[in-house]
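Task card 7
Instruction: Convert sequence to structure tokens.
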Amino acid sequence: MAKIKHNNFLDTVDEVITNATKAGVLHLHAEDSELNGRKIIVNGINSCHFGTTGYLGLEQDERLKKAAIEAITKYGTQFPLSKTYISHPLYARLEKKLEKIYNNLILITKNSTLGHIAVIPTAVEDNDAVILDHQVHWSVQNAAQLLKIRGIPVNLIRHNSLEMLEDRIKKLSGKVRRIWYMADGVYSMYGDYAPVTDLISLSQKYPQLHLYFDDVHGMSWKGPNGSGYIMSMLEELPENILLFGTLSKTFGASGAVLVCPDKKLYRKIKNFGGPLTFSAQLEPSAVAAAIASANIHLSQEIYDLQDTLHERINYFNFLLQKTSLPLIENNDSPVFYIGTGLPATGYAFVKKLMNEGFFVNLGLFPAVPVKNTGVRITVSRHNELEDIKGLVEAMEYHFPKALEETDNSLGRIGKAFNIEINSRNEKAKSTEELSLTYTETIQEIEESSWNQLMGHHTILNWKGLEFLENSFRNHESKEHRWSFHYFIITDQQGNPILATFMTCALWKNDMLSPSSVSKTIEEKRKSNPYELTSRVLSMGSLFTEGVHWYLDEDHPLATQAIKKLLLEIEILSARLDSKMTVLRDFKKEPWLSDLFHQEGFIPIEMPDSCIIDDLSWNNEKEFEERLSSRSRKHFRKEVLPFEDKFEISIHTAPTPEQIQHYYQLYKNVKANNLGLNTFTYPESLFKNMVSHTSWEFIELKLKDLNKVVGIMFCYKNDRGIYVPSLVGMDYDYAREFQVYRQLLYQTIKRARDLNMKRIDLGFSASFEKRKFGAKIIGKHAFIQSDDNYLLEQLDMMRNE
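Output:
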């Protein structure tokens, strides 16, 4: 079987960021002639700056500026030489001051990203293992990827999940020497903390456990001498911890600092730490500014600055508590996150605040799950109390308006973030213009009404869905036990605007991953068949392909109908406790992509779909003439010469013994094709085909061996659609006799003999199907998940 193409995680991110840029909330430019930290000009508006990560405002301190200027005058703009050979005159002074701040050995790096690339591959040895918190900063995750080349296991766990961490430690403890857990001290989106005390206890329980903290967002505003959040939680740094701080952000200069209490490891990193050896060192101006900042950190002044910032943080918290604004994490960090849930609400809210003169950041995918979009606000010492009060008043005024404009609610936001929000006084928006019919069985929908809307698609007519319900509704195996959900939305006159059906079923998380990823996971499934599986609420089903909804795009209420459907799906997903919602299979239409994204879904590329809609030929010669010149050569060489090798039969009521053999042939193909990795269908499904009048079986039997080596399972839609849903082959003969290609050809001939209008050939093997004149249709799906963990976990595995 031909390979199917797979979506790249970066393609999804690119599309999301592009949409946000078009909405005017990302990739902006400051327009000031000079900066003071408190104000910033964006889109011509002089705004209060609530987006900085310089929480203490030291980047505007005159002492740091003066030091940087003097250093340039004395030493030049840079000292272009590796620090391994010689460092410029200011480096030693800075190193001594940083050692006093941390009371430990330190190494200065160009920035934290290069620092992680230098330290992680050096500190982590070949017989170690790494566990990443899935919200640890990208720079840490990226550096950890380098370890996979050396065969070092790199695992991902859910955010701050100590239970999951301990479970991974137990599984790894007998296989590796050291286990490194890597996390942030303060997380940059929600402003929440690593559970440092619990992690220290866990490392005492499991001496193999070493901790690696990126504390760049905890630096300066917290801890003794501004040494950061992690140091504020510890009396001293144990030897099993590596700590990264920053000389940029709150420190006010540039660069990063590694704190390493293990002298042997310190020497090793210093002597050969990748970018430490081969990259240029910090510019004299940056080091001089850092020295000026370090002097402040080593004085009583740092505590005065911290107190001033905490006064502003406490004031902001005090004002927020009086509002109904959904603050996601309530703590004393300078990072605040107001949840909006839907990206559309986030866009609207940010733009309203920016128009009002308050610059804030939007938190969106992939930094947060797409349905956990929100506004990220950072408080700094630059912000005056009146600025903070003005921001809260603007948010109180504009937040309800953003909700109303985007058909959102506090209740939905609470559910998206799994937090309690008082939304009792919130008025539900009237949807009297639309009526919804919902049922959990096709039996409660009139056959002719459903077929008028959905009957001309593959197996999606009334009889086809009845067949699927009978095959999967109450199956004994949980992977084959599906629930069915039908939606029809009409206007006040009863005119249908939208119709669809969905199923909730157990999916393999790697269904659309590269086969190499699935192959690795399938090894684990030999001992646990449900490894890396999740309940998914999906438009259509794992058995169906094609257009899974009816939409009257010209109806004036079409957009409102889509939004109503998505709200109903959201409620249903919560009731069914599904971990992901999937809307599929759509052609790429910009207006629909934008709408789905704004409603909290991200796009992924699906395998191509294939159809043949020209069956007007009368004989083999006419069929051949419709093919391209290259395909004609293929047809004459790989198809026609083998047709006489087979006895071709059409069966509508095969015997139990035949079905058993057909099922084995199907399983051969299933085991050989991990490109679209689903659970193997049960034998009962194939037995049900026999008793259903719409199914037939195209059988290929080798004449010389009297052996059935190929089977196509075909559904006859009464609207003139022929659907070869599944294929089975004996691989001992598949290549020699071109079995798959012959099955495709015989399927096309059979559809022509039945006077069918179209053949829906489904996913995969599009290269082969194109040779028979199939049209290739690009398809997209849109997904919404509880968090990014599953997506990031699979993306990490595809890079192994």
